[in-house]
Amino acid sequence: MNSSLLMLWGLWDDVYQRCTRLRYIEKGANIFRVVPLRYRGETLVTSDNQKIYNGDLIVKIHIHNYYFATLCKGVKDDLRLALLLRRHIMLSLPKLAAYLETMAERESIKGIVGTTMLHKGVQPLGFSISDVPMNWFFRYKRWYLRLLLRIIHPDGKRRVQTWNHEMPLKRVYMSKEALLERYGTNQSPTGDLL
C-alpha cells in the first residue's frame, strides 16, 4: 500500500472512530476494537458448550484494519503476513480479556463475537465458527472486507479474484468464560493461527 493511500485511510479511520461506539483496547498496540451490544442472530453454541442467545449482551470484536495495514506496510510475502496477523492476535487476546474484566457490564456479558473472512485457524485459539445469513448487511460487509483485502494485501486484487468462492464470511465467537480461562490474568496464550 502506498503512503498516500495509507495516510488518507488514517484520516478516514479517525473520523470513523469518532462516529462509532467502537472502543480501543489499547490504541496503537492492540489489533482489536470492541463495542458492547445486544447479539442479534441464531443461538450460538461455543466450544465450551455455553449458549449465546438472541438479545444477550456480547462484546463485538473488530479487527482494527487500519492499524493492521500500518503493520503490513512493506510486507510482500503471504507467510509473513499470516505470521504477523497470528502474532498480533496472540498478543491482543490477553489484553482483550483484561479489558473485559474491567468493563462495568462484565457480569452480563455472554461472550465475544466477530464477523470475518480471516477465520482459518481460529479454532485452536478457542473460537467457534458459524455461517452468517447472506442478507443485505452481511453482503455489504463481505464486499467491504474484500475491498480492504485488496488494499491491505500486496497482491490483493489477484487474491480477491482467486479466493472468490473460498472466502466466505463467518461468525467467530467465544464464551466469556473461555476467554478469561485461556487469556485472563496469569494465563498464557495457546493455539496457532496458521
How would you explain this protein's 3D organization?
Helices cover about 40% and strands about 20% of the residues. With about 190 residues, the protein is α+β, with helices and mostly antiparallel strands. The strands form two sheets. It has a six-stranded mixed beta sheet. A two-stranded antiparallel sheet has the order 3-4.
Give the tags.
single chain, 194 residues, alpha+beta, six-stranded mixed beta sheet, two-stranded antiparallel ribbon, 6 helices, 8 strands, 42% helix, disordered C terminus
Brief summary of the model shown:
With 194 residues, this protein is of the alpha+beta class. It has one domain. It is built from 6 helices and 8 strands.
What is the topology?
Blueprint: H1 3-19, E1 23-24, E2 32-38, E3 44-45, E4 51-52, E5 57-63, H2 65-72, H3 78-102, E6 109-116, E7 128-131, H4 136-152, H5 156-162, E8 170-175, H6 176-183
Parallel strand pairs: 5-6
Antiparallel strand pairs: 1-2, 2-5, 3-4, 6-8, 7-8
Helix pairs in contact: 3-6, 4-5
